[in-house]
Amino acid sequence: MNNATQLMAGHSPLPLYVQIRDSLRRQILEGQYQFHERLPSENAMMKTFGVSRITIRQALRDLHNEGLVFSAQGKGTFVSKPKAVQNVQRLEGFGEAMAAQGYEASARVLSIQQMKAPKAVVAALDLHAGDDVVEVKRVRYLNREPVCIENSYFPLDVGRQMFALDLSGDIFPMLENLFGLPLGGADIGLDAILADDETREYLNLRAGEAILRVERLTHNRDGRPIDFEYLCYRGDSFKYQFRIDRK
């Protein structure tokens, strides 16, 4: 059954442009169209769906607003590379934020080890010089594309519990639901740095490309620092979104 037949056969109460938008979104997210691949022309979609040009343009407008497609003057509409957008008004993990936007998020563990805490980690986690921590290094994926390298550091009483666990998802729900550590808030810093060799390899970057580095220190509800992270994102794949008010 083709897309036009599906729209007609469903007798959906939704407007046609919404049905077309949802159909195209599903095809994009399922990988039927690759990044930067050109979508069918407006004329072709008018014929396929049996609708007017304005209906097609309404559907494409919504996909533009969602960041799923972009237009090139005189060339058509193309599939965008997915960009993670995270709102810092609420403390949430990468997977939690991406799932709310309809994206698939996952992680691959590169290493987990107990080690002497680096100086910056000692200060952040309020430890003593020479104390050990558990370091977890992961690659984060958005729609199966690598977008971030995470280096996370935990105090021993927290980190030692992670060695036998599945770390392919968000760690925040694990801290709260498995470890009984309700989270309070986080301090966040942002800067841009050049990607090192390891980051370039895992994120498929060229030599000399910059990355967005997020430094995040998360506290439990009692104010204890329990998770210090360096999150290194591809510059074309991530955006932090803020709202600030003038009081």
UniProtKB/TrEMBL annotation:
Pfam families: GntR, UTRA. Residues 14-82 form the HTH gntR-type domain. SMART domains: HTH_GNTR, UTRA. Keywords: DNA-binding, Transcription, Transcription regulation. It comes from the Bacteria. The keyword DNA-binding applies. InterPro entries: Bact_HTH_transcr_reg, Chorismate_lyase_/UTRA_dom_sf, Tscrpt_reg_HTH_GntR, UTRA, WH-like_DNA-bd_sf, WH_DNA-bd_sf. This is Transcriptional regulator. It comes from Marinobacter zhanjiangensis.
